[in-house]
Amino acid sequence: MKFKKSLSAIGITALLALSASLTGCSSEEAGTNAKKTEIVMSGWGGNPVEKKLLEEVLADFEASHPHIDVKFNVINDQYMDVLKTRLIGGTAADVFYLDAFEAPALFETGAVEPLNKYVTEEFDLDDFEKPMLDAFKQGDELYGVPKDYSTLALFYNKKLFKEAGIASPPETWDELQEAAKKLTTDDVYGLGVLPNIERMYYMAEAGGGEVIKGDKAAFADDRVVKELQPIIDMRLKDKSAAQPSEVGAGSNAGEMFGRGKAAMVMEGNWNIPYLEETFPDIDYGTAEIPTVNGKKGTMSFTVGYAMNAESEHKKESWELISYLTGKEGMKKWTSKGFALPTRQSVAAELGFDKDELRGPLVNGAEYATVWQDGPFLPIVMNNFNNQFLSAYLGERSLKDALKDAERQANKEIKVTE
């Protein structure tokens, strides 16, 4: 009995020792081969240079955050429809691109994680261009961080300006109208126009009217009509403006400008690399958008990173967002000039604020109207654009067109409420 008891004790001791040894081994292996956290990020594709830049930024992030792997999921078609479907179905990415235009409606669903609790003083929110940062807020709560943006600037053909005897780009809308008349010839229009609200929103509200008021369309207001009437008059009366499709350029104002069919267009930062690649011989400059009623104005289009409220890896998701929108990540992402950095310090470091072509775009950031105005803007946009085009083509008066558009937009809004 004593023998058996002793053997049993030895056996138990040995087993405990073996177990401890195995446990120690396993812990050591776990320390060296700890499982990484995979973060999925959804976005749309870009051109090859942008794709390469993003891959480099994500590789840098993974190198400095060895506990995280990032999988970039590209949604090429119907981005928001696919994203919403995945959010509803519980299969959406941890982090995703979010256009400011779509942001308010998505915030209201509760699908986007509030970020205030993650933001530290070191992250320096004051460094961001305020209109772009505010586009991802509801009240005081931040729901996204803007990764890049573009405003609109006036692109003008220096050769055509010289031939017309115009020394410098127009600074007021009245000057622009007069310049457009002088620049118009048998095969060149003074101004290339995209007749849609996303390009004219700042102008529509320059006289004190509002495109949307209290979640209702309000753009049939006489003050809005008055500010937009010059666009109609330039085409129908002065014959000095046209849209790209009228010269066989589809819907691309950059192509219309590059082919010399328009002496001026109002385009964004994206037009600079487009012209460099497609029309490298054109001699052009950029200037801030001419003032309307003495007020500076332009549009701004911005995209941010947002976090899925249902993500199981929120800490790691914020690490990714804060790196991509931090100074280091943003500098690399915007270094080639395809997009403008939303951090003022990065724009200054890259020299974009002093750049001959990009300077006017950067200068417009502080007073820009962001392309965003509540959850019903998509409905307002569709109805406005459909009817405004009929007035632009001379089929009816602008006032009548906008009355019908406003009435229909508010019917559709009422259905969705």
Describe the structure.
- It is a single chain.
- This protein folds into two domains: 37-150 and 300-370, Periplasmic binding protein-like II (D-Maltodextrin-Binding Protein, domain 2, 3-Layer(aba) Sandwich); 152-299 and 374-416, D-Maltodextrin-Binding Protein, domain 2.
- Helix content is 46%, strand content 16%.
- It is built from 17 helices and 14 strands.
- It has helices spanning 2-32, 48-64, 79-89, 103-108, 130-134, 158-163, 173-183, 197-204, 222-236, 253-258, 271-278, 314-324, 327-334, 344-350, 359-363, 377-392, 398-416; strands at residues 37-43, 68-74, 95-99, 137-138, 141-142, 145-157, 189-192, 212-213, 216-217, 241-242, 262-268, 284-287, 299-307, 369-370.
- The strands form three sheets. Strands 1, 2, 3, 6, 7, 10, 11, 12, 13 and 14 form a ten-stranded mixed β-sheet that branches. Strands 4-5 form a two-stranded antiparallel ribbon.
- The longest helix has 31 residues, at 2-32.
- It starts with a helix and ends with a helix.
- Residues 1-32 have low confidence and may be disordered.
- It comes from Metabacillus mangrovi.
- Residues 1-30 form the signal peptide.
- This is Extracellular solute-binding protein.
- Pfam families: SBP_bac_1.
